[in-house]
Design a protein that fits this description.
The structure holds 2 protein chains of 2 kinds.
Chain A (H helix, E strand, L loop, with lengths): L13 E12 L2 E13 L4 E5 L6 H8 L7 E6 L2 E2 L5 H10 L1 E4 L11 H11 L5 H13 L15 H13 L5 E5 L7 H18 L2 E6 L10 E6 L2 E3 L1
Chain B lengths: L2 H8 L1 H37 L5 E5 L13 H8 L4 E15 L8 E9 L14 E5 L12 E4 L4 E9 L8 E5 L1 H11 L12 E6 L5 H11 L4 E5 H6 L4 H33 L1 H9 L4 H33 L11 H28 L11
Parallel strand pairs in B: 3-7, 4-6
Antiparallel strand pairs in B: 1-8, 1-9, 2-3, 2-5, 2-8, 4-7, 5-6
Helix pairs in contact in B: 1-9, 2-7, 2-9, 2-10, 7-10, 9-10
């Protein structure tokens, strides 16, 4: 599936080419990711399935600019981030990717709306435009009446929806979901997955959903397995 | 919206303990400063207020006014020194004064000055047998219009007005003509009588543009070493006990500031540890370490500013409540400002200890293990 973004750019949302990530533990080299190559078209949803310690989080972290690859090429939304330093990666994360974390991790003393606006405060500070976008996202996510609620006043599903809204605030090329349903019961988890699927499709935003739950793979366009740092299509 | 400020507004209880501790430290800092200034003013006010540039002691007086003697021929020599514009004699005798209405044994310690050149805020010498009183004597029951009986000879000195900030050696002062001072000395301290033309010390006003320290050297050279002259600021510092008091209090003030640094450092280090996961998430969505640290710094400065303001209000309140002359406590605006500034610097330094922790937080930690 090849789509273009609003600027007409037809480059893939993500292109990993021979990406390798190693760590040195006790003087020995540990391979977390072994020459991984993966391409996501714009608007494509991929589930990354693998057991604990298989390297799926590492792959996700590299794709999202949280970690630098030991070798290989990482291109996100047409931007090659392979050689970026920490400041460039911070700017890249502000502008190009969105994250939804396993533990939700909303700022506990900020309202739902303010949790979305955090992205703007940490980034370009567009002010009015950001406030309008936050209101629009909350409306689309069915949280307009919860905008002034603190995370503690929201249900698990509502919190996850706020986290999705936060990930979409910067109009990213790629959203990375880290076990987005692991803290939710089956029914709420399914609702969240439907929401993720519809929001990504509607925006034409690519997504990687990291999971070890095979039940959610049918919400994705395709599934990629990872074992011991090796990708298997 | 600013996250750091929003947290302060929505979770004030988290910062209460630190604010209270810093408020106590701010109050302590200003009380110590006020006591230091009060003690120093109580020891030096009479010298500090002199409208002169050089203070001249006798060479063997070890910079003590009561021990000092200046002969008239030396005064004449000094008057002729290049750069000297005006010379005035001064003397003091320290005695107990009986205050009307007080018990017989309830003596007010006074230092009776005889002067020729008026200090700041003191009119020209009054007529014989009268004096202006330093307002600290009000605490001893002294009132304008009353006649004090000074010394064992009960020399009568009538108080004709108040003057402010002129304490000497921790005592209230009386400012009289040189005749009154000589009479009181002769009647009560025959051992300390000064010759009819002698003075204990001289005050010298320098001509325009003359350096006081250089003039002091010229004066001592002109008298062949019979005098020991000091620029006025040096004369104030030379008063016995002043340097020691200042040094002791400044050390206590320094330790208080170090404690403030430790309080801020510990509190914000703990807060940063507690926020590790949150900072990991914020870094993951693009926050820089600098931005997060500025938030910590802003919170530390706001908490400290609130504590310092409350501390200042308490200290000013105490200053207003303490009756003059009862406790040597003087709260100057400069002392309040400098205490607030020291605390804010302490907050910044204390906060800096959290910087390394903020820098070390790995954004990848937000998305699980990095391996």
């Amino acid at each position: 599936m090849i789509t273009t973004d609003s600027t007409g750019d037809s480059s893939p949302a993500l292109q990993l080419d021979g990406v390798r990530k190693t760590y040195e533990v006790g003087g020995e080299e540990v391979i977390a990711l072994d020459h991984a190559s993966l391409t996501l078209d714009r608007g494509e949803i991929v589930t990354l399935l693998g057991p604990s310690g298989s390297g799926k989080t590492t792959l996700c972290s590299i794709a999202g600019g949280l970690l630098s690859a030991t070798e290989g090429k990482v291109v996100v939304g047409g931007e090659d981030i392979s050689t970026y330093g920490s400041k460039q990666l911070s700017r890249f994360r502000q502008e190009t990717v969105g994250f939804v974390f396993q533990a939700v991790n909303l700022v506990p003393f900020l309202t739902a709306r303010e949790n979305l606006l955090v992205v703007d405060e940490m980034g370009r500070r567009t002010g009015r435009a950001a406030r309008d976008r936050a209101d629009q996202l909350l409306e689309e996510l069915g949280l307009a009446d919860r905008a002034k609620n603190l995370p503690g006043q929201l249900s698990g599903g509502q919190r996850q929806r706020v986290a999705i809204g936060r990930a979409l605030m910067n109009e990213p090329d790629l959203v990375l979901f880290d076990e987005p349903t692991s803290a939710l019961d089956t029914e709420i988890g399914a609702q969240v997955m439907v929401l993720i699927q519809s929001e990504m499709n509607r925006r034409g935003t690519a997504a990687i959903i990291v999971t070890h739950d095979e039940r959610i793979t049918h919400y994705a366009d395709r599934t990629v397995h990872i074992t011991d740092g090796l990708l298997e299509a | 919206m600013n996250i750091a400020v929003t947290e302060l507004r929505r979770r004030p209880s988290r910062f209460v303990t630190t604010t209270v501790i810093l408020t106590l430290l701010a109050t302590l800092l200003m009380l110590l400063g006020g006591l230091l200034d009060g003690l120093i003013a109580g020891s030096t006010g009479a010298i500090n207020a002199q409208r002169a540039d050089v203070f001249v002691y006798g060479a063997t007086a070890e910079r003590s006014i009561p021990r000092s003697r200046i002969a008239p021929e030396n005064r004449t020599t000094i008057e002729g020194v290049d750069g000297v514009e005006e010379v005035g004699g001064i003397g003091v005798v320290q005695l107990g004064a009986r205050v009307p209405g007080n018990a017989a044994r309830d003596l007010a310690p006074v230092a009776l000055f005889g002067y020729q050149l008026s200090p700041e805020g003191v009119p020209a010498p009054p007529e014989a047998g009268t004096a202006y009183a330093d307002r600290t004597l009000e605490a001893n029951g002294v009132a304008v219009g009353e006649t004090l009986q000074v010394g064992p000879a009960r020399t009568q000195v009538k108080v004709v007005g108040w003057v402010d900030g002129l304490a000497y050696a921790g005592q209230g002062t009386l400012w009289a003509s040189t005749d009154t001072w000589r009479t009181a000395t002769a009647a009560n301290r025959p051992d300390a009588v000064v010759g009819a033309e002698d003075f204990q010390a001289l005050l010298v006003r320098a001509g325009s543009g003359v350096d006081a320290t250089e003039l002091a050297r010229r004066i001592d050279r002109s008298t062949d070493g019979a005098t020991d002259s000091l620029a006025l600021a040096a004369a104030v510092e030379a008063i016995p006990g002043v340097t020691e008091q200042r040094s002791t209090f400044n050390q206590i003030i320094g330790v208080t500031i170090v404690i403030a640094v430790v309080v801020v450092a510990l509190f914000f280090a703990l807060l940063t540890v507690e926020r590790t996961a949150l900072y990991g998430v914020l870094k993951a969505i693009g926050a820089t370490s600098g931005r997060l640290f500025r938030g910590v710094l802003l919170q530390a400065v706001v908490v400290t500013a609130i504590a310092a303001t409350v501390g200042a209000v308490i200290a000013v309140g105490l200053d207003l409540l303490i009756p003059p002359g009862s406790i040597p406590f003087t709260l100057e605006p400069a002392r309040v400002v400098s205490s607030v500034a020291f605390l804010l610097v302490a907050a910044v330094i204390g906060c800096a200890f959290s910087l390394r922790r903020v820098l070390r937080i790995d954004p990848a930690s937000a998305i699980g293990s990095s391996t």
